[in-house]
Specification:
With 220 residues, this protein is α/β, with parallel strands linked by helices. Helix content is 35%, strand content 23%. The protein has two domains: 9-122, 3-Layer(aba) Sandwich (Rossmann fold); 127-218, Alpha-Beta Plaits (2-Layer Sandwich), CATH 3.30.70.1450. It has helices spanning 16-27, 39-45, 60-65, 82-94, 107-116, 124-137, 171-175, 210-218; strands at 9-12, 32-36, 51-54, 73-76, 99-103, 120-122, 142-147, 150-155, 178-183, 190-191, 203-208. The strands form two sheets. Strands 3-2-1-4-5-6 form a six-stranded parallel sheet, sandwiched between helices. Strand 5, helix 5 (107-116) and strand 6 form a beta-alpha-beta unit. Helix 4 runs parallel beside helix 5 (107-116). The structure holds adenosine-5'-diphosphate (ADP). This is Trk system potassium uptake protein TrkA.
Length: 220
């Protein structure tokens, strides 16, 4: 059913995280094999993604029968059941999957998954908590920390930078940040240039070091 050589992804564990992952991959045109041992989870996704199967992912034979071993990329989206998460992940390592992603619900859980040999451990709850903290505490409309040293934020321009060309504003020298894109109200985003003049009501994307982006976003 699924063409495993086409960038298809197997998603194991169809809780809130796994099922939205499976649906989003599908929306982007990726073929997905989704697996859960709960029939309710399987039923709710049937017909909405390429293939859904009911199976216990801690059972090596079940994984083999579903063809999981042929996938280049597999996500273990089991979180709260630590034992199932660790057993499943270790079977994926045993099956020599090239690219294993697994969700962890704590730092210790993440360390175990890394030690087993999972290449990509993600912490969705923790990361989302950090992101929401930025959103609720400040004037940020959206915020993404690309890595430890680089962030992007969506904000309204501080008043000192309204009505002056970005090239003459001294913004980068004073604040260390760069305005990447601007969306005047009612229009689409365009790249910012040295000639761009911001207006009240614009939405801007500002990038730079996380602390500098945050400080810039706090300006009145
Ligand atoms: P979320 O917080 O994203 O809802 P959960 O950890 O609560 O994530 O959900 C994990 C999913 O993984 C559940 O749907 C559960 O039925 C499934 N799951 C847990 N153990 C197994 C297993 N051994 N085999 C298959 N699916 C499993």
């Amino acid at each position: 059913l699924v063409d495993k050589n086409s960038g298809a992804v197997a998603v194991i564990g169809l809780g809130r995280f796994g099922s939205s992952l499976a649906l989003e991959l599908t929306r982007r045109g990726t073929e997905v094999l989704a697996i859960d041992h709960r029939t309710a989870a399987v039923r709710s996704l049937t017909g909405r993604i390429t293939q859904v199967a009911a199976a216990d992912s801690t059972d090596l034979d079940a994984l083999r029968q579903l063809g999981v071993a042929d996938f280049h990329r597999v996500v273990c989206a089991i979180g709260s059941d630590l034992e199932a998460s660790i057993l499943t992940s270790s079977l994926l390592v045993e099956l020599e999957i090239d690219d294993i992603w697994a969700k962890a619900i704590s730092r210790q859980h993440g360390q175990i998954l890394e030690r087993i040999g999972v290449q990509h451990v993600v912490f969705p709850e923790h990361d989302m908590g950090e992101r929401v903290a930025h959103l609720v505490s400040g004037r940020l409309l959206d915020y993404m920390e690309v890595d430890e040293h680089f962030a992007m934020a969506k904000i309204h321009p501080p008043k000192d930078y309204v009505g002056i060309a970005l090239g003459r504003s001294g913004l980068r020298r004073k604040h260390g940040v760069t305005i990447v894109a601007v969306k005047p109200s009612g229009e689409e985003f365009t790249y910012a240039t040295a000639d761009t003049e911001l207006a009240y009501g614009d939405i801007i994307i500002v990038s730079g070091r996380p602390d500098q982006v945050e400080r810039f976003a706090e300006l009145p």
